[in-house]
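Subject: Interface between my chains keeps coming out wrong

I've been trying for a while to get a sensible model of this assembly. When I model each chain on its own everything looks fine, but I need the whole thing in one frame so I can look at the contacts. Pasting all components below, labels as-is. Any help appreciated, I'm running out of ideas.
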Amino acid sequence: MAATVVSNKRVILKRYVTGLVSEDDMEVVTVEAPPLAVPAGSKTVVVKNLYISCDPYMRNRMTYHEEPSYVPDFVLGEVLVNFGVMKVISSGHQDFNAGDLVWGITGWEEYTVIDNPETLFKINHPELPLSYYTGILGMPGLTAYGGFFEVAKPKKGEYVFISSAFGAVGQIVGQLAKITGCYVVGSAGSDEKVNLLKTKFGFDDAFNYKKELDLEATLKRCFPDGIDIYFENVGGAMLDAVLPNMRVAGRIAACGMISQYNLEQPEGVYNTICIVTKRLRMQGFLVFDFYDKYYQIEEQIARYLKEGKVAYTEDVVEGLDAAPAALVKLFTSSSIGKQLVAVAREHKAEHANFI
Amino acid sequence: MAATVVSNKRVILKRYVTGLVSEDDMEVVTVEAPPLAVPAGSKTVVVKNLYISCDPYMRNRMTYHEEPSYVPDFVLGEVLVNFGVMKVISSGHQDFNAGDLVWGITGWEEYTVIDNPETLFKINHPELPLSYYTGILGMPGLTAYGGFFEVAKPKKGEYVFISSAFGAVGQIVGQLAKITGCYVVGSAGSDEKVNLLKTKFGFDDAFNYKKELDLEATLKRCFPDGIDIYFENVGGAMLDAVLPNMRVAGRIAACGMISQYNLEQPEGVYNTICIVTKRLRMQGFLVFDFYDKYYQIEEQIARYLKEGKVAYTEDVVEGLDAAPAALVKLFTSSSIGKQLVAVAREHKAEHANFI
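Reply #2:
Try treating it as a single job with all components included. I did that and got this:
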């Protein structure tokens, strides 16, 4: 195989992004693939990418940071990287064999050499749609589960508000909160999403934040007795509206602040005094904080899926050529469901909409 | 005694405060004292107030709130209330006897009937200056100890920043942090305070925030490796400058935000995204959270005082007539040490400056 020239389509960062990310910030190019067989003595693995995930935090990596950010900046002219679902095609690592299905960090391309295979997770439920491992069974699912149970520490009967509730993480948090016996309200950016949150995802209530003139009053209307848990995906003005609506000893699980990622100058938050007066705990976290619990959480979520206790939607585009537009959709509120790219479909016809 | 008319000087709220509190917002009046003997069957106690404490959080209670705040608003024409040191002169409660020295919530007046004596703490170290029970052995000490050890959860070698470090709570936190083996920097509002923090209170470094043009750069200079723990007393622009200087997994113990209390419109905080990217925990607390640990903490702090391990300063004014001006001093950065009012000195000449 080493002598065969295999091409490798990939999405590269064409320029550092300022303001709203656009398709023109990326470029789809075709280069020669790396050797598809791992050299003798190497502990790397070579994967064929099946699905890659579009996630809001990638925006941060597309801007040049003078000082290192919490995740490394993407490199100009180099392939984008993010979570994906892959098939191992060659392995020098004892834990992996050719044919294994895995998920973890990979390139936005057809073939990737993974230098640190110990960061990959095995896929234990291939009977479920493989693409779910970019979402409810992958990074967003682990983030939602860990952020809700480990950081927000919910109790039955508590009042939960989730912003960007139709996002990959928000959808899952809302359903976990309902399973826990909480009262759950979500915000989203379109009437269609609001409707789906209430009908398909079991939220007690939801609102379209774009139609609300006074978010603080809206939250007061939705939560006359206040909010115990705010699962924060948005930041800025939404956080500011939430703070005065929090109950004493409330928790804010700070997962992301998507409203701020494309701004040159972030919005001010004026009501931070509420953190003192209401004795709030606001805590940030990353998915890596929960890596050691992944396989337990995978089992739990797989069970919920099979029992029909959680719903899930995806917004899948076909092929790497469509990947830049798919990433941009995250920030224009136009993805309906977990946004991902099918790079290669070779496993089975799994998109029969499981739920 | 019931037939004797005893007078009771008191400080009342004359008008609700907007903006900076001034002496004119209060008035010193003399009224008839309540009966100084508890009626048969009552479980109240009557106290003679010896020292009353001036604390920044009182400012919040002087403003009218449409919705209930975390502490009740003071009532127009009624006596101010806050922590003080008192002698029980009559008791209907089984836990207290005439002559007991106690501290807790009382009125800004000579004599007060305490309806809920179970909120009072006994003073177990009367050999120390009694006035210290308005400070290092009272509410500020308990706040500092609980906020630092229970909320910030310090580890030896960590980098600690304390704003309003010369304040009643900040001074104590800094010294507890040094005892714990942390590197400690404080901010204060005058060169005199900065100097005292470094010479008398053992801070590794300190700066006068009024002389710094770029607080974010100042903190970067003081903490080239970042801040593990920020003990927040100030809020607003200082919080904004701290956030980018926090280290991953840092903690912000949010005790107060004195810079904001007199503002009609609070300052914006723009760097809240750091809570996500650095996985920070920012947590508010009130002294009541630590009430159940008070007597242990009293013993620990009394031991530190006797061993000379902590220094302490007070700014004492004499008599209730001077109380309004003393409260205003808190907000003009002109108190040097714990601000309090000696209402009556009858115990002993304890102000020999213990340390």
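Reply #3:
Confirming on my end. The interface with chain A takes residues 60, 69-70, 232, 235, 239, 248, 254-257, 260, 265-286, 289 of chain B (CB under 8 Å).
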